[in-house]
Amino acid sequence: MRSRPRAGRRYGAALVPVPMRNGNGSGVSMIEGWGGIGVPGRELRSENLERVTERAVLSRGLGRSYGDSSLPPASVGEVVNTTLADRLLAFDEETGLMRAEAGLSLLALNRIFLPRGWFVPVTPGTQFVTLGGMVASDVHGKEHHVRGCFGEHVTRLKMRVADGRVLWCSDEQHQDLFRATIGGMGLTGHILEVEVRMMRIPTAWILQESRRVDDIDEFIARLKDASHRLPATMGWIDLLTRGKNMGRGTLMAGDFASADVAPKRFPKPLPRVTMPFELPSWTVDRWSVRAFNTAYYWKHLPREMHGIVHWETFFYPLDMIRHWNRMYGARGFTQYQCVLPDSAGPSAPRRLLEILTSRGGASMLCVIKNCGPEGKGILSFPMPGTSIALDIPVRDDTQQLVDALNEFVLREGGRIYLTKDQFTRPEHFRAMEPRLPKFQEIRAKWDPEQRIRSAQSVRLFGDKP
């Protein structure tokens, strides 16, 4: 199965720079992460990733990593934007095995496969990611406790490694490279093609149950219970309410609905709105976040609700607002995501929230999920425990807040998600990541001169700037 040729393509296999943000004609612009951090540089685009990656220090897709993991070091100008290399190359309807170029987006993949009764076995919380980015971050989702990370379903990768060779890697061939690339933040080579096994689904509708929960301790208990019954679970919690109702929120769980209970029609695309401009940074403060959290909590007026919902509503609620990151203003925001292991005990999430609230942290979005076993990726994020993700507006004291959160996570034996990170200090990361030496050993084998690196690898791994 092959995708249709895209209409209106002007560039062919030519090498072209991405349009500049600053318009100064210099060929250099600010390349930004989703959280608003930016570095000077130039993105190169081509349909032929094998050729264009000769010149680049890093590959990146749609730029939805929050911090600096998809940004080049400040002294290095060029990275590859993979989004023109987005062909669907092969699909086996008997086995679900699909192969595509690394720049194919999850949005396009869903549009192609959902009407045909297939879905990715693991999805992050946005469709605006590429297949290559999903591998590099080894994305996880609401279903991690059942299906693991995305990398568990990837069978092969075609890569261009630092010395210029183009090769395939898998669990049978160059296994060290394969497992270091899954969750390796693009630091082991340029991902050119991805082969992954898709999942059959009965319909594109979701049978969802949701519940309003009064505090974080009850939330953790109910999250664990829902995870035993349903493959997709997550919750939103209120971070600013203190006392006995700290961590109150809404728990959601669900699965694809069977044909006998789902509507007969295929779900229509949902309308989207656009955040037209950046809001002033002062609009996201404790008072506005408190008002939002209170309204969101009481929106779920019945204690329990059951019903059929749209797949986009369930998996990608924030995708309904284009450029939603603009609400945090010119200073931007960071998303802090950690996983607290089961060994830390059920009260660990409450203790983390107490640190956040005691320091005046305000998060409009806090997502909590249950995580299952570690995956095959050497630096993959999840471990058995509870994942907590916080959106934090950047302020003068954000570094101190992240330091305090990291010190707690380190004491409890947890770790952070590199795709979201912007402020972690290298000593904290190295202390919480005992797998790093093995990763660095494999990386040095395939790239002894550190030709492939990022702003994040300079900051955390000690790479040359």
Secondary structure topology:
Layout: E1 16-17, E2 29-32, E3 38-45, H1 49-52, E4 59-60, E5 78-81, E6 88-91, E7 97-101, H2 106-113, E8 118-119, H3 131-137, H4 144-147, E9 154-160, E10 166-169, H5 175-181, E11 190-197, E12 199-200, E13 205-213, H6 216-229, E14 232-237, E15 249-256, E16 273-274, H7 286-299, E17 304-310, H8 311-315, E18 321-322, E19 333-341, H9 348-358, E20 366-371, E21 385-393, H10 398-412, E22 415-416, H11 426-432, H12 436-446, H13 455-461
Parallel strand pairs: 3-5, 4-5, 16-18
Antiparallel strand pairs: 1-3, 2-3, 6-7, 7-11, 8-12, 9-10, 9-11, 13-15, 13-17, 14-15, 14-20, 19-21, 19-22, 20-21
Helix pairs in contact: 9-10, 10-11
Protein name: Putative oxidoreductase
Organism: Sandaracinus amylolyticus
InterPro entries: FAD-bd_PCMH, FAD-bd_PCMH-like_sf, FAD-bd_PCMH_sub2, FAD_lactone_oxidase-like, Oxid_FAD_bind_N
